[in-house]
Design brief:
The chain is mainly beta and 287 residues long. Helices cover 3% and strands 59% of the residues. The chain contains 2 helices and 16 strands. The strands form 2 sheets. It has a 12-stranded antiparallel beta barrel. It has a two-stranded antiparallel sheet with strand order 14-15. The longest helix is centred in the first third of the chain and has 6 residues. The radius of gyration is 19 Å and the shape is globular. Pfam families: DUF6662 (PF20367). InterPro entries: DUF6662.
Length: 287
């Protein structure tokens, strides 16, 4: 198992959580990610963010990647007042849009660059540690994301536990010209177990903390998610499918945020009821 895991170090047994493994020097991989959000307080809501990525092992400790980001949104009267909106939708609605009509659009969002540096190897060191940074720029968004990645393997590497501490510094331009500045912090934890050759099953949790301003100026809400993950990997390709459900235990810190809460879950322009992540990776060699 140790040999198998090292040979496929680029694959991930989690949907959203990163592990401290990186690609060996000189190796490439193509990865597709689809992050789907579905369901709000009423009506219809579906938002899918897609990333097309090329990863490269620059050294045995440093992995770099380039992304092309695009999305698809389909929403209809999903707001508390019966209007159309939500994450990935409200930002793009101008004065000409009928708020009681359907919004459906596929669009290019941004490009981004990612670097992951492995400080400690999860296989050869007592614990794995990696540092991550990702700047992103697009017509309507500018963002800097960072992560501290921790990983611990158990039971001869059959059981993998990982924690990510992730922060973002976001600038989003709305259709009316207004600018939103935000700085969320997420803490995610997951475990995945090798149940049979090539197959892993586990779970992921997410604690999301939203702040206004670039530097965590004012807290807005804390939302909680949890759900299962399944992973399949072999030499030629791998895939991971994960689902997280928003738990009915949101904490809000102002009236605006409290106004978009129903049955303990926050909606509005913040979150959906369910989140799904699909990842597909294909390693390849360049001669």
């Amino acid at each position: 198992m140790l040999t198998a895991w090292q040979a496929r170090a680029g694959e991930s047994p989690f949907g959203w959580i990163y592990t401290a493994d990186v690609h060996p020097q000189g190796t490439f991989e193509y990865e597709h990610k689809s992050f789907m959000q579905a369901g709000q307080s009423q009506g219809q809501y579906f938002f899918m963010q897609n990333k097309e990525e090329i990863e490269y092992g620059l050294t045995n400790q440093l992995q770099i990647s380039g992304y092309f980001n695009w999305s698809y949104a389909n929403a209809f009267r999903n707001g508390f007042d019966g209007t159309t909106g939500g994450p990935g939708v409200s930002q793009f609605l101008d004065a000409s849009f009928d708020p009681y009509s359907r919004y459906e659009k596929t669009r290019f969002d941004s490009v981004s660059f990612e670097a992951i540096y492995q400080v400690l190897n999860p296989v050869t060191d007592p614990i794995g540690l990696a540092l991550y940074i990702e700047p992103e720029i697009g017509p309507k968004t500018k963002e800097l994301e960072w992560r501290v990645i921790l990983q611990k393997n158990f039971l001869d590497d059959r059981l993998i536990a990982a924690i990510n501490i992730m922060g973002k510094h976001e600038r989003e331009v709305y259709a009316d010209g207004s600018i939103e500045r935000a700085s969320p912090i997420d803490v995610t934890f997951g475990m995945s177990y090798l149940v049979m050759p090539n197959w892993m099953i586990g779970f992921e949790t997410r604690i999301h903390n939203e702040f206004t301003g670039y530097w965590f100026n004012n807290p807005e809400h804390s939302a909680f998610f949890a759900g299962p993950v399944i992973h399949y990997g072999q030499k030629e390709f791998w895939w991971t499918l994960a689902w997280r459900h928003q738990l009915p235990m949101v904490i809000t810190y102002n009236e605006d945020q409290a106004s978009v809460v129903k049955h303990g879950r926050i909606y509005g322009d913040e979150h959906a009821r369910d989140e799904v992540m699909f990842r597909l990776g294909v390693p390849f060699a360049v001669k």
